[in-house]
Amino acid sequence: MARTRAAVSAMVLLLIFGEAKSSETESADKSQYTLFNPTPERLLRDFSPDRPSTTENPFTVDAGHVQVETNLFGYARSRPDLEGTITDTFDVATSNIRIGLTNSAEINFVLQPYGVIITRPPDPSRAFRSSGVGGLEIHAKFNLWGNDTFGEPGSTALALSPFVSLPIDRTNGIGPAFVEGGLVVPFGVQLSDKFGLDINAGVLYLRDSGAARHHAEFLTSASLAYQWTETFSTYYEVVAQVGRDDPRGDIVLLDSGVTYLLIKNVQLDGGVNFGVTPAAPRINPFVGITVRF
Prior knowledge:
mainly beta, Porin, twelve-stranded antiparallel β-barrel, 1 helix, 52% strand, disordered N terminus
């Protein structure tokens, strides 16, 4: 009987302190925390990487913390272009380094340290291989609402995410040859205890392939996630990029993948993207990891 009372008391204390910590995280004024005055561990938001889906979530990394999201390995095979050429692309260790500046703002640096592109025309003698470092992307994310109030069914969050892409090696074909940029607007809604939906709308300012000018392309995507357990989730996604300067037309992808929370601040993931339109890659499998410090 004594053991039973002790067990019940322990459960009650756990519920009380667990609810207190959750309430503290949601109600605490975290505006005082910055890059040089980090958010305490007890007030950190739930671990929410942007990867592995293409769709960004609207949440920022807590102030003074760093989150490294790495595509350990990715492969993509294109559909044949108008001349019948197929392209194989290999991506190794592309990383998004996210740094929390304030409670609602972060800066990101995305770098591809190594990539390989193998182009295979119908005539095998004309095949060639390019390799090297990709470009550098600099992103910012500003959460407008929902960073610390998201979680209950029906709750929402919204952010703005501008970015610029800078060339490092203009000649290797791996990264951009010119400065490009854009703006993405991530929106999230908690549909139920298990289902969450992220939606992106954005505009990309890209260099024309055959002229010395830039043009606008438009990006939209939606990712539906389902949390099977506290550590394991899956997602299902549709992505479209329209208004492209490409005779093959627009890009439409259907994607799916999984995430597994290995420990509190380490998540593993994997997935595969399937191209629907001629301009989209035929298939793009990948695996990755995210670590928060």
